[in-house]
Amino acid sequence: MIISNPLARVFMSVHIIHLAEQFAKEQLQHDSSGHDWWHCHRVRQMALRIAKKEGADEFVCELAALLHDVADEKLNTSKEAGIMKVRQWLETHVKDAHKLEHVLDIIATLSYNGGHHPPMKTLEGQIVQDADRLDALGAIGIARAFAYAGWKGHILYDPEAKPREVISAHEYRNEKGTAINHFYEKLLKLKDTMNTEWGKRIALQRHQVMEQYLAQFYQEWDSSVGNLED
Prior knowledge:
Blueprint: H1 6-28, H2 37-54, H3 58-67, H4 79-93, H5 97-109, H6 123-134, H7 138-152, H8 169-174, H9 179-185, H10 197-221
Helix pairs in contact: 1-3, 2-3, 2-6, 3-5, 3-6, 4-5, 5-6, 6-10, 7-9, 7-10
């Protein structure tokens, strides 16, 4: 069913977004992997920012951004279970079948997954994917990388453990790595995967922040910076 009255549609959209916020908070507020409620909030804010520039459907972008990690495979018993959880919520609250399937398709294909997902099909999907990946870059991205490593039980750094050049989806999800190697296996690759011009601009600046951080990290690891008193 599609609501024809414009004011009623606006009211219903605002109501659905409010309910989606509550649902995401309920599901993710205690997460410590870097995929918590505040991550979804930041992705929502960035998605709306880009959607306004690109002339995209802001409702679809906002709803997909809010719910994308509720379905995350890492936080559910399986990818299918996560998608079903979000589908059931959407079917209860979203009566426009086209928008429902659009949001669900974005969420189902959004994840990096070791770089093995196909390209996003729609502008809205491209925007939400950019917003999600931008939150894995820059200062926030650095903080999230170490939060995730701790959550997974990965060590900080091992100079003898080299980053994997090619990584399968299974290896990406299940094999042990190091926090620093995660930068090379995923985070530093994200700049070149951006879909929108706005995403590319922001990604470049945040990518440079991470490069500067890594340079400082290696200098401190080797004790080659910092003043020593006689």
